[in-house]
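note to self: dont lose this again. the chain is below, predicted strucutre after it. 311 aa total, dont forget to put it in the shared folder this time
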Amino acid sequence: MQGRRSSTFSRLLRHGFTDPGAAERLLDLDVLSGVRTDPVLLEALGATADPDQALRGLVRLAEALEPAERRALLDTVTTAKPLRDRLLGVLGASEALGDHLARHPADWHALVTYEAADLHPGVAEFVHGLAAADSPDALRRAYRRCLLGIAARDVCGTSDLARTAAELADLATATLRAALAMAAAEQPQDAAACRLAVIGMGKCGGHELNYVSDVDVIFVAEPPEASELAEASEPLEASGLSGPPEGSAGRRGAGPSAAPDGRTSGAASAPGTSGAASAPGAACPHPPPILPTPPTPPAGPSRPPPDWPRA
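---
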């Protein structure tokens, strides 16, 4: 027993585990009884960004599944390299997505196969992936299921950095569309009162989103009657908040979260604007104030996006 333990301990060290003792205890659990000695599994775990985290995530996922489904998962992991690389790669890179799979274990099936269209999804594909969500919680789950695919393509090298950033921005756009449609369905009378645009700014607007970026947006509402708009604008004009700042050459419409170069990309927009999606409605018939654009910061090197999602 001591020789076996020493041999396993040494193998785990060679495969990059920083806590071989804890890894041994996890491999000895009943849920991994059929694969604990599989050399392919250990090699695949060792190839991830964090073998210890990947193994913990695999154990949590296996424990959350029914026995028959657990066997299907482990059989597929040990025999199908594409799923093995995607699943273990994501588990080793993102604790947050490991938490998601532990809460929603059936979502591992989203990584089993890729159709041709899945290799380079855009807004339309993400809208389809979120279409079944009928509540905020369902939308969060669908969002993270789509995020699984983005992260898997990222860690496996199917998508480069620029493509991954664009997919994250497209997923944010599709999620805002779904949320706006959900809000309009819940408040149909308010939705009919005016048109509402949600305009993506900054990295979202520039198709440069990363996993932990804020999604900066501006809400712009248009009431049905011009008189209401004029009435709502009077106090803003009196206070000077609605006018352009000094030195801006009359530029308006960019909020405090705008990118220095003024790029925008409508995450959701009303007809007549340059947005990517539209829906009528807003809970309030008056438009929100548009604040002055802040001074443009000096140019400098941008911080590179982090490689992985985090909790």
